[in-house]
Amino acid sequence: MVTLHMLLAILIVFVLLYLLLASYAEQLTSLFPKGNMRLNRLILINLGFSLIQLIMGTQVREEMDHVIARLGYLARFEWIENLNFLFYVHRSFSILILVVGFILFYQVYRQKASPQLVRKLVAINLLIIVLEIATGVSMAYFGVPAFSQPIHLLMSILLMGVQFIVWVVVNAEWLFKKWTSPKYLQSVIP
């Protein structure tokens, strides 16, 4: 149930971000007039891996509830070591997301023609990945401090949002011109 709730929350965030970005459609379509397939693939890989990580994280959180019920709140430093294998997959998978984040950052900064907006967004993406990993490490090694859980969750939602914004900006020509063209709208609206 937690996973479904989180996925629906992410979907709502994506819809709101899309609507916000659509109000800047004219400016955004000029940034990448023909798109960038290589960059697009990297962004989708980054977004996809982050989504998988988020789903695993919600599963780990559900398992944590069972561990807490079994061990109690006084055994805070034992919670992590009593989690199942999914915690270790979730923890290790963050390295892959960090690597993809670095590759995305490198690719954008390597291309001299990359718009300043995209450069800033991929830098923020990388910063959020590092902060996300830092809060995860603090939970794993410091007995799951109460402050780190909401920060970890907030960082994951921010990460997904920034990655979605980058994807929309890189694909603005396709997303806004095609889907808002009079010809397309006449075909769907009677």
Summed up, what is this model?
The protein has 190 residues and is mainly α. The chain has one domain (2-6, 35-175). The protein is built from eight helices and no strands.
Walk me through what this model shows.
This protein is an all-alpha fold and about 190 residues long. It has one domain (about 1-5, about 35-175). Helix content is about 80%, strand content about 0%. It has helices at about 1-20, 25-30, 35-70, 85-110, 115-140, 150-170, 170-180, 180-190. The longest helix has about 35 residues, at about 35-70. It is elongated and about 60 Å long. About 25% of the residues are buried. The model has no long low-confidence stretch (mean pLDDT about 90).
Question: How much of the residues is beta strand, in percent?
Answer: under 5%
Q: Helical residue percent?
A: over 70%
- How many beta-strand elements? 0
Give the terminus-to-terminus CA distance: 38 Å
Number of DSSP helices?
8
Low-confidence stretches: none
Sketch the major β-sheet. none
What would you report as the Rg, rounded to the nearest angstrom?
A: 19 Å
Q: What's the overall geometry?
A: elongated
